Fold this protein.
Amino acid sequence: MPQLLPSLAATDSRAVTANNRATPLVQKLWTRAGELKRVGVVRTPRFDESRTREEFRVLKRHMMARMEADAGPYDPRTILITSASPQEGKTTMALGLALSFMFEHDRRVVLIDADTGSSELSTRMKLGDQLGLLDYLDDEALEVSDILYPTSVRGVYAVPLGRPRITAPELMASQRMRRLLETLHDGTEERIVIMDSGSVLSCSATVSLAKHAGQILFVAAMGQSKRAEVDEGLGILHRQAGPIDETRVALVFNKTDRSQSPVRYSRRH
Amino acid sequence: MASMLDPLFALIKEESRRIWCYRWLVAATTLVLWGGAATYVLSLPSVYDAWGQIYVNGQTPLAATAEGMSLVGGGYGSPYVVQKTLLNDDNLAKVVLRMDPTAASKGKAAFEVEMNRLRRKIHFARDPGEDFVELHVTDTDPARARDLVRLLLNQFITRNVDRAQADLGRAGQFLDGQVAAYDAMVAASQVKIAEFRRTHPAVAALSATAVDNGLAAPRSAPATVAQAAPAPRSFAAARRVSELESQLAVLRSAYTEQYPDVIATRRQLAQALIARDLEEKAALTAAATYRPPVLLGGYPPRRAMPAPLPPAVASEWNNLQRNDEVLRSTYQQLLGKRVATHMSQAVYGADGAGKYQVTREPTVPTVPIGPNRALYLALAGLLAVGGGLGVGWLRAATQSIFVSTRELEQAVQLPVIGTLSWEPAWNTRPPRPPRLARVRGRIGGGTPNPPVILKSYRTTWDSQP
Ligand SMILES: Nc1ncnc2c1ncn2[C@@H]1O[C@H](COP(=O)(O)OP(=O)(O)O)[C@@H](O)[C@H]1O
Ligand SMILES: [Mg+2]
């Protein structure tokens, strides 16, 4: 059903044509098993809320400003979302940001579930049992298009985690991972890659991923994140994933009450 | 002004937010604290208040007598004194022993403790203007409270009566001695006057004329007895009159005119007066018929103008008479006081009813006066909430959670580029539906709420399976 994908651009490096003509990002609509590819469900309840949209918009603006100002060695379009401890809202943030970036014209978003601790994002997208990132990194025979799934939201694509492996941290630190990201950024289309990772203190894979990320969004939750843990998490990132400074890392304060929101809209606005 | 207070408001807001993050801990701590306090308060025994009332008559014979007599002293009628005497160690020790005979064997310290405990249970109430004293005893056992009041009242009354009797006895003894001494002094003075008369006949004649002309004061008349009249007899009659007069005065201060004693005393007094008049007349006759030996032959017996006295004799005579006067008036007062003392003794000797009157007998209280459990529970609730808040705050402080963007930014020295509000709908664990809906769901009736799907944006993949 290629007619269903009129605006999708090419992605696989091998498929990039000489004249850089846009080709569909998701080329394969059938899985290796010969079934029709599943469609990832991307939804964030109440994203219709003007307040929520505005809050994500504020975050998005900051990140886009960095993308434009970038001159460093890392590609700022690769965003890693992490936090010190679990349950602070990384997955929520990833989904919300994906939706927010989707509003930008001529930008595509690729959501990667890289949380080896709990593949919450894959599960939420109902892609939990599909071929995914770890399979791709482990199996040279797989192509990017094999693990790239369309989602219920136009312009947002998903890469599930895949079957878990004990070598996950090493796989994510590998060159193949770097190449995957490069491939995703290839082409004329502006693509933003959002990686939902595990918490720094419980997932060593996150540190490996941080080495590939141009921007790291560090989530802290009000009344939940502890100072010592945040300090330690940032310290680990700083020591093991290159210098952490404000050009690369930004924090976001989650689960605040509305009075702290920079967006002063009421619900019914 | 507002800008000055802004940081304060911000701080309060932050701290309350911090505590809010540990609201469950706060609630649990509060509940536990309050539960503990409530158990304690409810287990407190009820306290009962038993009380008795005594009337301390400030105007009794004793008080009347005691006025001006330092030996007996005042203060018998003062409720303050009642209070003090009731609470002295001696009294309390006796009460403690009565309540618990084994207390003495427990050692001095334990006994002291017991006494202080008793002292704390006792308190007084009184109307400011009246002589009623209310004695209250609070105890967890209503019957014991009643017994304590009764014991204390009895103790107080017997003790005071004893004391009053002892005081009065001493006063009586003293007065007896004084009366005897003055008796002798008055008699000596009389003898001296008689002697003087004998040696100075002119004086005798002067006084006889004075009596005849009614010039002499009636009170001094019986005293100007002639030598021939037997002085002690005449004096005994006068003494009887004085005694009766004093007695009457005392009685009148306490009783009405109709009181039998008053009537009897009046009758006795009348008789004594008659007797005294008779005696006086006899004495006067004797004095008038008496002729000193020097004058027997010469002077005409009546209406003779007495010769003027030589100045030295006149002054000595005056001195003698004044001295006699003073002695006798003091003697009269002493007699009066002695009578009053004897009467008071008699009054106290019975049961002290004239002085202390139990106007309300203590009864076993049925309604406890305390503890005020509702108040204590409310206070405990307040304290428990305070404790809970404190614990919550401490926990938040030790855990050092973040409650504001400012805090987070200060702590990590990195930019905080945004916030995301708490959105209840995002909790991946959906809230449990109400019980009824759950039951209906189980029996296959209702439909669960459909998940909210982002519908606003048409997607390419909507038609996909
Ligand atoms: N802003 C928010 N408002 C309400 N609930 C939130 C918010 N952010 C996260 N949550 C909830 O917190 C829990 C953890 O969120 P999640 O995004 O899965 O955290 P993580 O990926 O860091 O483990 C989820 O139940 C999620 O619904
Ligand atoms: Mg997650």
